Amino acid sequence: MPISPRRATLIEVAKMAGASKTSVSRFFGTERDKLSAELQQRIGESAKSLGYRPNQMARGLKGGGSRLLGMLVADIRNPFSVAVMHGVELACRDYGYALIVCNTDNDPALEQQHLATLATYQVEGLIINAVGQPGQALQALMESGVPLVLLDRDISRLNAEVIGLDNALAIDMALAHLSRQGYRSILYVSETPERASARQERLQRFGEQAEAMGLGNQTLILSHSELPSCETALAMYVEQQADSPCAVLCGNGTTLLTMAKCFKRLNLSMGPVGLMGIDELEWCELLTPGITTLAQPTDGIGRDSVACLISQLARNKPSPPYQNRHAPRLIIRGSTAP
Amino acid sequence: MPISPRRATLIEVAKMAGASKTSVSRFFGTERDKLSAELQQRIGESAKSLGYRPNQMARGLKGGGSRLLGMLVADIRNPFSVAVMHGVELACRDYGYALIVCNTDNDPALEQQHLATLATYQVEGLIINAVGQPGQALQALMESGVPLVLLDRDISRLNAEVIGLDNALAIDMALAHLSRQGYRSILYVSETPERASARQERLQRFGEQAEAMGLGNQTLILSHSELPSCETALAMYVEQQADSPCAVLCGNGTTLLTMAKCFKRLNLSMGPVGLMGIDELEWCELLTPGITTLAQPTDGIGRDSVACLISQLARNKPSPPYQNRHAPRLIIRGSTAP
DNA sequence: CTGAAAGCGCTTACAG
DNA sequence: CTGAAAGCGCTTACAG
């Protein structure tokens, strides 16, 4: 049973340095330069020898702010979400914030609960990859003035900034590429678009743009990604197009994985039947002959989410620039060479 | 410029309910049942109508504890780490803790920095997937009595609990399977084992056990996973074994990905040359003919890490059981069918 | 069962 | 440039 030596406190540092609490507080706050060189020296040394670091909980309680940001992720096991989180982390570090991450596992109830918890910790800003509709927890948070950014998914009737991929551009780039490669007819595969605005935007743009380009177009919605029925749908589609070269465009990583499995089961070879996806995953280059993708700039999306929060927090001070819609990067591989 | 209505405070609830601060505090703490039914009712109603939730920062400042756990991840983009984090999250929710996650990107300096930050937030416990050696930040934390669990990687001269895969068992299971399938000679591929005890344990057990089973055995250490040199090494190995069936066993997901790429570049077919990995990844079943793996029980590892922390926190109260070494699950696919 | 009071470790007007 | 004092929103002995 170790006698745990408590962490040193501001008072102890003040005592040791022969200074006031106020001065020590200034030393660790934003007013260090208002202290004489000599005082700074004394405080610095005392603090060091005591291993002192300000208690952030106490700081947050008074006017200091919690220096805490919250992030709500719909599915933490989705590589895209994690990649964005990586960018968020990087930016937090730069701005001196710590990050509380909550995974909602796509459960709206859990989302509400986590939101309440986050409020409890007095987070100064919130990055939300929403799964449900606003709900009272979020309303309360907004009303209490906490800055918000919506990641990838918009929420109707909530006027917060949305940061993510430029969905229209992504679809346009994909269709341009597929058309250039000679595919005349495209099947777009999406997860159920109800709750995710990004999915809706992509789906809608696909219809419009394919039409505008004179490409054949159909849509397949995966509800529970039940493999057998996907397989059937894919087989039927390909058969229908027997005469002209066709391709499958997947709206995200999950659908791409599902469709890649279907290709395999049906023994379809990629290329002759095109396959392309939004989101770059580690196995895309591994699968013969390589899958063409649109990579999202995940670090950038993450960083800009934080930058957006910081701007809202800054109010009048000069604040970092950020972008709402990010352009994808086309990675061409064998799966779109007929 | 919205006038942000501050969140309600304990005092306001007390005032509205015509009760004392103490009673309101008790209502939201562990002594609610010491309050008369009538008082409970009044406080409950007032709190509800004010939308009151206790400020966790203030609670933590007094004796309440921060109800915050910290997790340090060496590489957040590693699917294994994320999967474990998922388990940690689940358990945190059960025990009523929130989680601050810090990614060290395999940088010991960053690790130190994050550790200091975590201390600043008064985390009550720490789950560490270490990259560096202890360092003063960790020492200080330990000495101040913060419970610690080491994830997957041990740190010499730190007597904290280590939770992770049963590495010896994993290697034994892998070798037993490969031997059963008829492979007579195995190449074990590992990342540099210096800083990661799990890698060391697997590597060492591999040598011992393969020897004991009378299997040919060699080792390949990937330092920067430079593809061309791996490719050469693999080609040479396979050539040497021309006479007897041989297999490649990968120590983790990263090395498995690298080796799968080498197989592809060399046009080696999996099965005739065996391929197997520790860690189950989404593409393992996708790659023809499917890669045999040992899946780690990541949720369990995550949950037990938290359980271990809780036990240390509980001291005398009954605390949850947990396991230090977890058994993997063998998933047999075509890559180990000669 | 209930409450008045002290105090957790800080910051921030306010004075000098 | 420096400090004494009040107070952030809670919890916890201590008393009744």
Give an overview of the whole structure.
Chains A, B: GO terms for molecular function: DNA-binding transcription factor activity; transcription cis-regulatory region binding. Chains A, B: Keywords: DNA-binding, Transcription, Transcription regulation. Chains A, B: InterPro entries: HTH_LacI, LacI/GalR-like_sensor, Lambda_DNA-bd_dom_sf, Peripla_BP_I. Chains A, B: This is LacI family transcriptional regulator. Two copies of one chain form a homodimer. With 338 residues, chain A is of the alpha/beta class. The first copy, chain A, has three domains: 10-54, no CATH class; 68-164 and 299-326, Response regulator (Rossmann fold); 167-296 and 329-336, Rossmann fold (3-Layer(aba) Sandwich), CATH 3.40.50.2300. The first copy, chain A, is built from twelve helices and twelve strands. The first copy, chain A, has helices at 10-17, 21-28, 37-50, 56-61, 79-95, 108-120, 135-143, 167-180, 197-212, 227-240, 253-266, 298-314; strands spanning 68-73, 98-103, 125-128, 148-151, 161-165, 185-191, 216-222, 246-250, 274-278, 292-295, 325-326, 329-331. In chain A, the strands form two sheets. In chain A, strands 2-1-3-4-5-11 form a six-stranded parallel sheet, sandwiched between helices. In chain A, α5 links the parallel β1 (68-73) and β2. Chains A and B meet through α4, α5, β2, α6 and α11 of A and α4, α5, β2, α6 and α11 of B.
